[in-house]
Amino acid sequence: MWQKYVAEYCKTCDRCQKANKSTGKRLGNMMKIQEPRGPWKIVHMDWVTGLPPGGYRIYNACLVIVEIFSKTPIFLPFQKYDTAMDTAYLI
């Protein structure tokens, strides 16, 4: 009995409707990730920036590499202003 009352109240409550309203774009369809056939066939890379400074060179960014077959993460420290050549050298 009370469930109907709560549901009806939430449908008519302006505050509830605004809180539950989706304002962003609709998400796309999910896609299956391709299965790797062996180690180091597929890797994912992403940057993490805005980290507090630390280390010998005052690193404040990190390149995260994940080898998908074994799901092994590798974390490489960088400075925010390192170049593409610096990245290629470390990889």
From TrEMBL:
InterPro entries from the UniProt entry: Retrovirus_Pol_polyprotein (IPR050951)
Superkingdom, natural source: Eukaryota
Protein name listed in UniProt: Integrase zinc-binding domain-containing protein
Organism: Austropuccinia psidii MF-1
